[in-house]
User: Fold these one by one.
Assistant:
Number 1:
Amino acid sequence: MQESLKDNVIATLRTIYDPEIPVNIYDLGLVYGVDADDTGTVRLTMTLTAPSCPVAAALPRQVEESVRRLPGVTDVKVTLVWDPPWTPQRMSQEARLKLGFF
């Protein structure tokens, strides 16, 4: 796995926000997996806060388009999953502090 590419992907994910929550999707815990191989293919596994989330169609597409623009990325595959379901425990400590979850 290309660690520098993975780091760049994570940095990009931290610029994408759920429009209803003032925390980026990575620290919110919506991204379950990031894998970047030597060919530049990036595979992301992510979820949303709820299946009925208003951005269910738009957010994965935004993620794909943002990651695709990174240098060295040749392909992006975003898989949206519902299992395991998202819970506030998936948030980073920083996100919990920002949202008052302590």
Number 2:
Amino acid sequence: MADVRRNDDEGQYEIWVDGGPVGFTQFRVRDDGVLVFPHTVIDEDQRGKGLGGQLIGAALDDVRARGERIVAQCEAVRGFVDEHQEYADLVEA
């Protein structure tokens, strides 16, 4: 089972499987508190297992719980939001 963790020191959400990290989605916090997501990576040997969607979904759930908003520069994050309109309200216009 995958576990998603926010790592503020590294500026990323990480997805862990079997006790080790297998991917991340980076973020930086703008001066106005909005999180900019520029890049997402899943280890090559872990691709095709739905981990990217799990990672981004959990990250956006956490963003919502914290009352934050995002800018989806990353194609994977932007695509996820496009496919899951329930997250569209998190996107800064």
Number 3:
Amino acid sequence: MGAFVLVLAVLMTLLASGGATGSNAERCTRLWTQSQVRERMITGHGDRVVVIGDSYSVGLGLRDPMTSWPSRLPGRVHVYGYSGSGFSARASSCPHVEYDDREPQALQSGAGLVVVEGGLNDFDQPASALRSGFRTLIGQLAGRRVLIVGPPAAPARAAAARRVDAVLRQETARAGVPYVAMTGYRFSYLQDRLHLTPAGHRDFGTIVAKAIKGY
């Protein structure tokens, strides 16, 4: 059973049971549906590129999710994003959506390049949890071309994003994988001061695309 199928089964069980977990289960099911919608929006041509990410990759807040930042990347791009997820096991309150848990389903058809983007949802997690999740994911991606994209200093979580960025810089150096630090760039944000505007997505994607071309 694929990872996302397992997630859906768990969430539907929670919904059926009702109680205190009902509202969160409904939220998780909604996010899962959004994830599946974006997954079906494949852009570009050429070598298969897989993006594993959070709401930025899904395009949360955009009128057209297909224009989220991965659409700027070279290649035939497949997006496996889930809003609220991260490297850490408890970054999201939804079950089985951390990056290492979703990696097998994302790569079941292979990929010439795997781009992993995130970190903003790890803002309240201890460094040990971030390191553990990252190392598990990198272990699963051994032998593949991988590019890690860190979190920008979104105004709503700027200080936390910089802490996460520092850990990811250390971990990518330790693992010997390329890292794109986003904390030094300025982007335009929606009113929540967390998610990117259409222009912000274009700028974000352009930076990642340049990093891929220089890989």
